[in-house]
Amino acid sequence: MTCYFFETTAFAKLFVREQGTDALIHLMETLPDNCKLIAASAPLEIYSAIRRREREGMLSAQDASSALEILRQEAARMVQEPLNPAVLESARLLLDKTHLRWPDTIQLAAAITARDMFQETEIVFVSSTPALLDAASAEGFRTLDPTKEDAPASE
């Protein structure tokens, strides 16, 4: 079985239209809910980004409200990796060996912990952040960047 871990920059494309949104929607429509994974912190990060865009006038109050409702529904349907001690320790180790910022290490650490838990399941790491995609590849993940809409998951 193959599951997909949606890092925040990819998952956010469901709620604010930008490059890669159509590819991400298509992928999400093809996957069963139990094969869609996120870090438990991802919905809060996206909530913050939507509110920030609303405050800056980039989103109307109505569009922000709609996006937040979709976020609530989608996040509830996905498997969320909690920010437990194993995730935090994995993030600390990633800080020691990568140049990633700490929020990015939390995302990748959550994917690593999920992979360790579901050992018979391949997990594809989905992100729009090149440095995070590189770090995920270095950790042995196949990766997918939804902004490269026709690109398959890398080997």
Structure overview:
- There is one protein chain.
- Strand 4 (122-126), helix 7 (130-138) and strand 5 form a beta-alpha-beta unit.
- Strands 3-2-1-4-5 form a five-stranded parallel β-sheet, with helices on both faces.
- It is built from seven helices and five strands.
- The protein has one domain (2-144): 3-Layer(aba) Sandwich (Rossmann fold), CATH 3.40.50.
- It is of the alpha/beta class.
Quick description:
This protein is an alpha/beta fold and 155 residues long.
Strand-helix topology:
Layout (H helix, E strand, L loop, with lengths): L1 E5 L1 H4 L9 H10 L5 E4 L2 H14 L5 H17 L1 E3 L3 H13 L4 H16 L4 E5 L3 H9 L3 E3 L11
Parallel strand pairs: 1-2, 1-4, 2-3, 4-5
Helix pairs in contact: 3-4, 5-6
State the secondary-structure class.
alpha/beta
Write down the domain tally.
Answer: 1
Distance between the amino and carboxyl termini: 16 Å
Order of SSEs: EHHEHHEHHEHE
| Portion in strands | 5-15%
Largest sheet features: 5 strands, parallel
**CATH class wording:** Alpha Beta
Give the neighbour order of strands across the main sheet.
Answer: 3-2-1-4-5
CATH architecture: 3-Layer(aba) Sandwich
By CATH's scheme, which homologous superfamily applies? Answer: 5'-nuclease
Helix content: 40-55%
How many DSSP-defined strands?
A: 5
Count of DSSP H/I helices? 7
Rg (CA only): 15 Å
Low-confidence stretches: none
CA-based shape: globular
What is the averaged pLDDT score?
A: 92
CATH T-level fold name: Rossmann fold
